[in-house]
Amino acid sequence: MNTENRYPVTASMFMLREIIHRQEQVKRGYQLLKRKAEALRIRGRQATAELASTQAILGHTLKEAYISLAAIKFTNGEPNALVLENIGQAQVRVQRISENISGVATVSLQAVEDLTVGDVFRYAGLGAGGHRTGEAKKAFREAIRILVKFASLRNTCILLDEAIRTTLRKVNGIEKIIMPKLRNTENYILMEMDEREREEFHRLKMVKAKKIRSQTIAKLRPELPCGDNGDSSVSSDASSSRIRSLEHLTSILHPCTAPLSTSTDSMGDIKPDPACYPHNWDDDDLLF
Fold first, then answer.
1. How many other β-carbons are positioned within 10 Å of the β-carbon of residue 99?
2. I need a surface site. Which of 12, 48, 80, 268 has the fewest CB within 10 A?
3. How do residues 115-161 score in pLDDT, each as one tens digit?
4. Separation between Cα atoms, residue 52 and residue 33, nearest integer Å
5. Domain annotation covers residue 23
6. What keywords were assigned to this record (predicted)?
């Protein structure tokens, strides 16, 4: 398995439990991030729709306000110098309200009218055009409120869009990189542990087969001849029969193509030639 698609860990039961626990945590975080992304998308769609309607209302309100200002200029002349000379404290103030949308901190703006501040232009236009002056003041005050609301919605949309992109980037990173790596690491650990078990089983099988073979050879080994020359022929016949039985039993224990050849030394001991070593034995060939 490619090491780039998994984490560099050792194949052990402890690491297997750690990887499984980490996978559970990653899945839980993945589900939470998906829910957060969905909630941010819903709130973003609502803010976008409200922003579009507010932008349409703002255009109509500003149009009406500038039309009323043109009417004042036509009736009373240019009022800019009078306005600039009598500027005091603002009657409309902007209040910041903190909001938390699915873990994203946003700031909404709200226009608040301060009634303690006196209106400098409440007596403006008493000589002529006072009605039009009052309409212009109301129109521009409404335009300020809509402008503040538009700025608040636009700021919220920008923050939500950035938060949605960041959340989706995390979701894709977990789904495409972290989770496949964890799965590949778990599969690697399981494969290595299975391979170790097979190697251990094969080693124990070889050891047991060698032990059985040694015990069988020790049982069939003939005793030393202790008689005269007449008994030597009898002992040689017994030794040959035992050698044949040894070959027959060895062929049963180890069905190999080459037969088991034996030789006797000067003392009469049998030395089997290990021509077929039990390295290709199957499970059925062993007497477990």
1. 13
2. 80
3. 666 565 554 554 555 677 778 888 888 898 999 999 999 999 999 99
4. 28
5. yes
6. Ion transport, Transport
